[in-house]
Amino acid sequence: MPAKLSVNINKIATLRNSRGGNVPNVLQVALDCERFGADGITVHPRPDERHIRYTDVYTLSQHLTTEFNIEGNPKEAKFVELVLAVKPAQVTLVPDAGNQLTSDHGWDTLAERAYLTDMIARFKAAGIRTSIFIDPNEAMVEGAALTGTDRIELYTEAYAQQYPNDRVNALAHFIKAAEKAQEVGLGLNAGHDLSLHNLTYFASRISGLLEVSIGHALIADALYLGLENTIQLYKRALALHE
Ligand code: PXP
Fold first, then answer.
1. Structural domain of residue 150, as residue ranges?
2. Ligand 1: does its nearest atom lie under 6 Å from the Cβ of 211?
3. What's the gap in Å between 19 CA and the centre of ligand 1?
4. pLDDT at 98
């Protein structure tokens, strides 16, 4: 089974917010992503609501039929409240600061073990699958397993950066982290800077990969290729081998 494709629609909300109206319509785009073959929709609400707004998250949750994944930092009380109210299929915990441009590091699962264990128990008690965003580091994977999380999401920016020059070495840490995840019984997701250029090599060589969430490159590709075609191309990239 190829990994599932969850489309991150934050960029659609950013475009809408730039004019203050409702164009493009975030809900309609999400429903169309599903119609075009996305296996899930991801949003990453931030406290300043500069991309997805909290009200978008409630609206989306009432209409989506595929897996809804909400990413964010549980240290924001408002985020925890939102996720527990919406009860998405999955919550992905990300240790980003509110004003960060985008996520740029994973959790220190050893230093934050007690905190993460507590948060994960709260989300799991509400029936929500949990994932925590980490760097491709075996010690962090082992630490993640101790928190009780269902899955981890490997932060793939380092892979994407190194891919054009040395894709073999770019992948090495990720292969080890993925093997460790399987050994300790964690489900595996991945995301950040994945694109049509680097996706097949990653997905076909990381065993047990369940889901990727992709936003920036996919939405940028859609400007040239159209959203339906782009989603189909990403799905195909996940099914190919390289
Ligand atoms: N995963 C996480 C935790 C993220 O924060 C983001 C960006 O919001 C992504 C995946 C998707 O990254 P990109 O937009 O580069 O595809």
1. 4-239
2. no
3. 23
4. 66
> Which residue positions in the chain have pLDDT lower than 50?
none
What the block records as the tokens of 79 is 């985020």
Burial class (CB within 10 angstroms; exposed 0-12, middle 13-18, buried 19+) of 127: exposed
DSSP classification of residue 136: S
**Structural contact between residues 106 and 81, judged by C-beta atoms closer than 8 angstroms:** no
Residue 149 CA to residue 164 CA, distance in Å, equals 33
Cα distances (angstroms) measured from residue 204 to each of 51, 116, 164, 182, 187: 32, 30, 17, 16, 16
Sequence-ordered list of residues with C-beta below 8 angstroms from that of 24, at least 6 positions apart, any chain? 12, 15, 16
Protein residue with least CA distance to atom 9, ligand 1: 192
Instruction: Tell me the torsion sign for CA atoms 102, 185, 178, 220.
Output: negative
CATH number for the domain harbouring residue 187: 3.20.20.70
Beta-strand (E) ranges in 63-220?
Answer: 67-72, 90-93, 129-134, 151-155, 187-191, 209-214
Q: Give the number of domains in the chain.
A: 1
